[in-house]
Write a structure and sequence with these properties.
Layout (H helix, E strand, L loop, with lengths): L2 H11 L41 E5 L26 H13 L5 E5 L6 H18 L5 E5 L6 H8 L4 E3 L7 H7 L5 H24 L11 E7 L6 H15 L3 E6 L19 H16 L4 H4 L13 H8 L6 E2 L5 H4 L7 H10 L7 H7 L3 H4 L3 E2 L12 H11 L5 H5 L22
Parallel strand pairs: 1-2, 2-3, 3-4, 4-5, 5-6, 7-8
Helix pairs in contact: 2-3, 3-4, 4-6, 7-8
Length: 433
Amino acid sequence: MSIYDKLNILTDAAKYDVACTSSGTERKSDGTGIGSCELSGICHSFSADGRCISLLKILFTNECIYDCKYCINRRSNDVKRASFTPDEVCTLTMEFYRRNYIEGLFLSSGILNSPDYTMELLYATLYRLRHKHHFQGYIHVKSIPGASQELIQMTGFLADRMSVNLELPTAESLKALAPNKTRKNILTPMRLVQNKMTENRHEIRLYRNAPRFVPAGQSTQMIIGATPETDYQIVKVAESLYQKFELKRVFYSAFVHVNEDAALPARTGEGPPLLREHRLYQADWLLRYYHFQADELLSNENPNFNVVFDPKCNWALKHLEEFPVEVNLADYKMLLRVPGIGYKSAVRIVKARRLGRLDFGDLKKIGVVLKRALYFITCNGRMMYPTKMDEDYITRNLLSAGEKLPFEVTGMGYRQISLFDDVRFGNCRENYV
């Protein structure tokens, strides 16, 4: 099989793995190698559903000894199999980089022979890239659950980011759909990476030139919709991961029905639950940047997100006793809870009001979305228009203004963007949560 044939198979096999991002690290070129990685992120193009397209995103192999019921590459499936060699991955990465197709590598893999055997191949690939080809660009690699600590540590000194997929939100779901995997095997390497990152930060303080271990942190991914967990359960799991494992990101992957199995949800003809995925990303953003807690957004009595309104707007409608907020007096954290005010706008408001009192014209220039915020704020003690602080009244007015649903729901199907698509003419756009 040619390297081109393998590329077609293994890029397509990687399309269901969404846990790739490139921001959060800085690897400057020293003048002797090729490539660089900027702190602001090397990925500048996104597909319409938010997936990054400027990394070479491949599986090392789609062969797997496991039989996860939701996975297209499971052992029992009759699919065309392929495996790269470390040198082939290096060749592809360097050649695509030189042609300006990509600026980094996202490398995942099925489990070939054993976790240790697979992890050793991934380590060999990264070692060749860094030391033989002197590639200094961004690399995100998957840590293989069950692999030895030594292999994971050695690989971590070569990668910018590592991740291990949580796969499913609960241990019960994992046992039902991925019987070869256990929560312990998944959380053990996650804890190892966290501890080693903490140790490495102390080493860097003492020795400036100490090698960096996973400088961009670690992330994970959960499949959404394959099992019956509520949004509340999923957000609580994500919150716990952020607090206990110091993760940079939790990614949510809408379940795609690629296998026929009695343990999986029945086909409905509606496609992947992309709106639910979108709401979870919005809630995740609130956890990480807006100082919300999971218990504020959902509860056992109200376990799922509103289909129509985003989680912050829905929270505000349910807590009208907190509003209206006076923008010239409210603290930063309270400003963050106002629909239509993002964290950048909140920072600008805090800085601008040091120079004088703000009015609605100033807020518009700052970037506040007034068509949403006007129901929840006052400027100098006055609302923009006479407004009744009633949930039904505000809901009707927000709906009449037009709630913007995510593009995934209204305008696209589920398709992995090819490395050979010309993104200038494709249906691509930046999609912010």
